[in-house]
Amino acid sequence: MAYALTLGTVSFFIAVMWGKPLITLLKRWGIGKQIRVELPGGHQVKTGTPTMGGILIVVPVLLITGVLNVANLWGMNLIGQSTLLLFFCLGSHALLGAVDDWQGVKGLRARGEGMSARMKSTFQLIFATIIALVLYFGPPHWDYVGVPGLRGPYEGGFFRIGPLIIPITIFIIVATSNAVNITDGLDSLAGSISSIGFASYGIIAYLQNQVYLMAFCFTVVGALLAFLWYNAHPAQMFMGDTGSLALGATLGLVAVMTGQWLLLPVVGSVFVAETLSSTLQVTYYKWTKRRYGEGRRIFKMAPLHHHFELLGWSETQIKERFWLISVLSGMLGVALALI
Length: 339
Description:
Layout: H1 2-17, H2 19-28, H3 54-73, H4 83-106, H5 117-137, E1 144-145, E2 159-160, H6 165-183, H7 189-207, H8 211-231, H9 240-258, H10 264-267, H11 269-292, H12 304-310, H13 315-337
Antiparallel strand pairs: 1-2
Helix pairs in contact: 1-3, 1-8, 3-4, 3-8, 3-9, 4-5, 4-9, 5-6, 6-9, 6-11, 7-8, 7-9, 7-13
């Protein structure tokens, strides 16, 4: 644990020190957020705020993980080989998100939109499939699941599910990546909740004696805390898809690697609520439009944080209350992992 917390601290200082230069650079390159006109009025003042701030999170984590893996080649046992898959997951999804952000900012598609949903989903599926196949066929052959309250026949009380883990892993990575992306709509919201998710799974990894997985999780937490330093309301930068897609996919992979992926909806309850609100809103609107000729809505606006904005909650109130729910959810998730 001391090793993991030290890496988290190093990650924080690396990230926080180059935050200001990064903001300056993003402004110089004109990489500013384009705010949709239908969002609540308070969001319009954020137009032009630097986006792609996920770089601040991703680069220190990749740097630290990469250096420790290089040290392994020199015979120093500083990080487990399993972190290479996490390295690929974080890096590949960050690159995908960066392309999406760049296209959106530079208006390479109509109305300044980013990459098409179909193209983005295709790459997400490709990356997730590669990860799932390596996870299953490569050592140490991850194909297990923990069920709270039940003791499995394998080490740690797990059940093995064989090749079924492949489609499950693909679904978890893609779904979690999109869930964090949907949640990223208010200052500090996605970043603070992601930090709780990684810290919770870091503790679960510690309880399983997966030292290097724990170390990776807290390295991410440190970088996230540095990002929140600049993303606190009023935000000086946004993470964009560069951060949200990468964080979500990597959190999903971490959950699979602990075998406690059934607890991900608990630990990430806010992400689940945000995603469900958007899905229900779109589905209900389309159904009522076909049935009654006029689309109707369940929420004032989706995802859920915009609904509460229109109810009169301030941006800070929503973030703090969602964060409190996330903390409690993380505590419950760790508790269930011990059963």
